[in-house]
Request: fold
Amino acid sequence: MGELVQGDITEQRADVIVNTANSALLSGGGVNGAIHRRGGPAILAACRELRASRYVKGLPVGEAVATTAGNLPARWVIHTVGPVYSQTEDRSDLLVSCYLRSLMLAEDLGAKSLAFPAISTGLFGWPVADSARLVSRLLSSARVNLDVRLVLFSASDLRLYEEALRATDHRVTDAEIVRVLAAVPANRWRALFEAADRITSADLEGIGSEAVENMFRHLFRAPLVVRCDYSDAFREGRRPESLTVAEAVRLITYIWREDYWNGGGTGVLEGRIRDGSLPAALGTLRRWVERSQPGAAHEGPSQKSTL
Reply:
């Protein structure tokens, strides 16, 4: 899952420090106030620029944006707005989105390491034990190409996260897969489908086509390869048109592992396109994105496209 430590988030040496921001992107209390005080006026100035341009109405809950880190021992601060805890409404998808959007943004920045506080557990009232359960499952199952550190304020918080990690069942559920998909930004979906649409039959005649590899890199960045036991991946034999979106992701995981463990460049990906497996998974994902994020999916394959 990454490293669990007790400490002060503003003292963490990492490429990225995550701030539990408010929608106004202004200094406040708790972690947010501490980061602005330690980071200095450069962070607030960058946040005001964002409010005047991209986020005139404020940063939405569950989304993330990066600024300079000012005087902090980091290169960037990623600001994310956590949900306020509610006893009558399940807002866990928004909390998960804060973590996933931050991770994907850090990857886009080229960061190698990231330090999280326990988002929403302070002023926003999210119970620490429930946050520990959600975050432990997320970071144990999601594919993450970063050194991730969770910085807990107190010894009791650290103990709750350690207990949650020990109790985590590493089998990925369909609901958790859908949560990951819901947090993928529209630009990543568009890049994926556009890359898929550029593949032609000529790309399938040789082994290790650049177009195919480029498309699969976008699949991997989505992130659509879940960290799950090989036995949990999609079982072959289902009719391709009947795939659920979670099964499509499991099928992609299955194909990726099949290619990876065969050393890559073996024609596995091309073969899975020809037999219809990968186009079926991509079709399911495209339809799901069109329903859940209108405008994020590409218009559709070109006349020359194989997918």
Summary: The chain has a mean pLDDT of 86. Strands lie at 3-6, 16-20, 64-68, 76-80, 113-116, 147-152. The first strand starts at residue 3 and ends at 6.
